[in-house]
Design brief:
With 153 residues, the protein is mostly helical. Helix content is 70%, strand content 0%. Helix 1 runs antiparallel to helix 2 (36-70) and helix 5 crosses helix 6.
């Protein structure tokens, strides 16, 4: 999936984000009932995830722009007669768009596409309200609109 250079870039970004978190972390602001080490780890993980997400989003945007400029987009529509499982075909179709999704949106897609769950079942499983699940669906529609537009051509 990623080359060695990409992996090295991601590791360097994570290292820098960890260093940045250690520089910005203020132990005096930690509540007395909380363990400072645990709070720092959570803060560092959040900082690293943010930096890595930003990098991947920008990288995806650049790669996507290059591929659009170089060739016309073409998607293989999932086919039930194919020897490849339907789930794998759907994931291949969505793979260019997955980096833009938050984990809950990806989870929503998994539950609806592959498990055929309804809003109530997803809400119960993820311990959120049905309104929140409907928000994920609305957000997905916006983020996946480019895919829809390409498929409708």
């Amino acid at each position: 999936m990623y080359s060695t250079a990409d992996r090295d870039d991601l590791l360097q970004i994570a290292r820098y984000a960890f260093w940045e978190a250690s520089e910005k972390f203020d132990i005096d602001r930690v509540d007395q009932e909380k363990h400072p080490e645990n709070v720092f780890i959570a803060y560092a993980v959040q900082t690293m995830n943010g930096r890595l997400s930003d990098y991947l989003r920008k990288h995806y945007k650049n790669v996507r722009a290059e591929s659009i400029n170089s060739t016309d987009s073409f998607y293989d529509i999932p086919d039930e007669t194919s020897p490849e499982p339907m789930k794998a075909q759907m994931l291949r179709l969505l793979e260019d768009h997955l980096p833009r999704l938050i984990p809950r949106e990806t989870q929503y897609l998994n539950f609806t596409l592959f498990d055929d769950w309804d809003t109530r079942q997803i809400a119960e499983s993820t311990q959120v309200s049905e309104h929140t699940v409907r928000y994920w669906k609305k957000s997905l529609r916006i983020k996946l609109k480019p895919l829809k537009d390409e498929l409708m051509k």
